[in-house]
Amino acid sequence: MNKSSFHLKDITIKLNMPRMEDILNLPVQDPPCAEFSAALINWVKVDGGRQGGDAVALILFSRVDDFVKGESMNAECPASFRVESRRKRTEGSVSKPRVDGYLEYRLYWCSYGPEDYRDSEPGVGENLNSKPQSGKGSRPGRRHMMRGCLCHFTVKRLYTRPLLALIIYNQRSHVDKTGSPCHGILDRDAVGTRAMYAPRISEELRQKVMSMLYVGISLDDIIQHHTEVVERHGGPSNRDDFLTRNDIRNMERVIKHSTREVHQNNVDSIPVWVHRHQKHVFFFRGASATESFVLGLQTEWQLQQMLHYGNNSSIAFHSTFGLKKFKHRLCTLLVFDSCQNAIPVAWIITSCFNGQDIPCWMVPLVERIRMKDARWKPNAFLIDDPSFEISILRDAFQCRVVLCLWHVRRSWMKSLLKKCSSLILQQEMFNYLGRILYSARDGPSAIDAIEEFMQIFVDQFSFMEYFRDQWLPRIDMWVNGMRLLPVANQEFNGAIESYHLNLKSKLFGEQHSGSWMRVDWLVHTLTTEFHSLYWLTQYTGDTGYFRNLKVCTFSANSWYRALQIPNNDVLLDDEELRMIRVISQSERSMAYTIWNPGSEFSLCDCPWSRLGNLCKHVIKVCILCRNRQLARPSIAAQTYRQALLSLLNNPPDDPIVLNHAILQVHRIQQDIKGLEDLSNSGLLQPLTILETNGHVVVDDLLPSPGLQ
């Protein structure tokens, strides 16, 4: 009777078990955590097919690496999984694909198996010509860790659903052929040995050490730092905590033997690099007779920074680098941390100079981000070129588009400093140039402002020739862009310009002049040395380590340095406020003069500003003028006011839209009042609140796409 009942139970389970033909009806699972293991997935056993009886699950193909990382962090059996076998097919190569047919097939196996060399004696009876049982070929340096582990799983990128991956867990337990644990804390023989932990260091630690080596931190300093970190969290608990000098020397050899030119021919070199570094590439298209060259780069660290700092915040497009010296233009997507430092989160190298190739790389980049976090969404996308197709940018990121004037300001200022010797003349001309763009908001027309400027300064032949050749043909484009788009404030201008200067200092050194025309050199430098500098800057800011080695990292931007200037060091001794002085923070007996205060076209006589840069004194005065309403509103502030007036004068026909707009304005007013109350009660530092208010006014209150 018992046998019959068990038999009936088996039949019931068999009937309820889905067949392989039903796998596409399984739910697609996407755990909310960054990395996840098999314990966070609902597994289903299937009947029939090659995977009959195995546990299967469907996840997004873009999250396979997250699953592998999660499985490697098993608390009882830490491991790392290697790709034991890999196969690929091209789309259209199969006329009638199976339901579990694949575009890509990977077999992942625990690095502690499948061979078992625990009982073998090194050098005794060893046949050097024999091949390991797995068929992988010889694995130099791996024999000592082979403990017969049978844990393995298969990943199939489905042929009929390329965005999905079918995971087939063939053996989930870390056991040997006898069914006993063979490594980790459950294996008694492994206790007290390295077999308790993962067989090799994690990718995160490898990236960390490689970055330290690239920026010049010595082996001894790395070991000392690592020891301090391990001691701080209570001693060794995983393989990373056992980092050795030999591990670091191995990485030093990798760096030493890495080459910037993987092929003598520059054209052939890039496809080879892309094939070797597929994890760093989110888009690649070779040049042809009808299409431009495009290479999109994003490391795993950059992806995480974009997810963290880009969500509900601003993203900027730096698109003006290398136009004269490089073979192709270098574009960068930037996000901003809490100190308003610009962090590069993607690089795009392209032979197209008019922005027509933006949709081809932007769409896969946004898809890559949203596959990691479907809720990810920025609130503003900043551009430095109004010729870009605004609708494409707005549709891709689903947010408002904001115009940034940093490039215009910097180009005009550097040209004035070069072509006009008089300081007074420079500040007057810079003020008039600002009026041309201000005319897009109020006052005379742009044509009248240009004519007035060229008549007054007609004797400045050198600058006028530059202005006619470089700017007059496209000044209408900028003026129209100012009319249609909100304008970013000085905080963003300073951050983007700071990144621009970092690029120049790293890439435009004379020692690199022979490599400027090679794209492989540019790609290698960006993804190694330059990337490592930004990684170390963030790591130092987050942890406090290596502050004494700050020379290795980039300096703070002008906006952050402006916050360190006390309000009392700003001298308002001109009744008409045509100029304001700021006491030097390094030489207290000296004060610098800022002309046209509060404007995007202020000019300072400090050494940093005299090089054509946006200095901390200009930003400090702009902050003070904005919050005390001491000067004419900046273009960014005028943009916000005009949007509100437009809303009041032309209310939306839809009452729901109108109510939403009124509620938004009321909420912002309450937020500002609450911050003012905190400041008045002494619970908030006045400078911080001024910055917060200013950032809210210019960033959160910029008109949405519907108002543009």
Describe the structure.
By secondary structure, the chain is of the alpha+beta class. The chain is built from 21 helices and 18 strands. α18 (616-628) crosses α21. The radius of gyration is 30 Å and the shape is elongated. Residues 1-15, 121-141 and 678-708 have low confidence and may be disordered.
What is the first-to-last residue Cα distance? 78 Å
| Rg (C-alpha, Å) | 30 Å
SS-based structural class?
A: alpha+beta
Biggest β-sheet: count, sense, barrel? 7 strands, mixed
Kindly report the average pLDDT value: 79
Q: Which outline best applies? A: elongated
Q: What is the count of DSSP helices, taking H or I runs of 4+ residues?
A: 21
Uncertain residue ranges: 1-15, 121-141, 678-708
Strand content: 5-15%
User: How many beta-strand segments?
Assistant: 18
Helicity level: 40-55%
